[in-house]
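Hi everyone, sorry if this is the wrong subforum. Our group has a chain we'd like a structural model of before ordering constructs, and none of us has done structure prediction before. Sequence below.
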Amino acid sequence: MRLSTMKGIAVGSLMGMTVGAAVRELQAMDDSCTVGEAAKTAASAMLRGARGNSGVITSLLFRGFSKALKDKTEASSADLAAALQQEPPAVSYTHLTL
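Answer:
Right subforum, don't worry. Here is the predicted structure as tokens:
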């Protein structure tokens, strides 16, 4: 199976780098943080650290996931399942110029 590439980098690698940005920030957080705080931090780090289109899409999916957890101090399996069913935020491309 051949992986799609962007300038010689496998797309899965770009998504991995995007998630890696969140991992670094989460590791720096205090262990007493809430699930909502951790989810917000991860979503923000993923957007700032997004690599390629796949990374941006992954970060937007996690942004929707994090919004469902924003007021949670802890999360049950039902909370996580509900968060995964959230629609990702709408993205506007009106600010882009060609």
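For your construct planning: The two ends are 34 Å apart (CA to CA). The longest helix spans residues 11-28.
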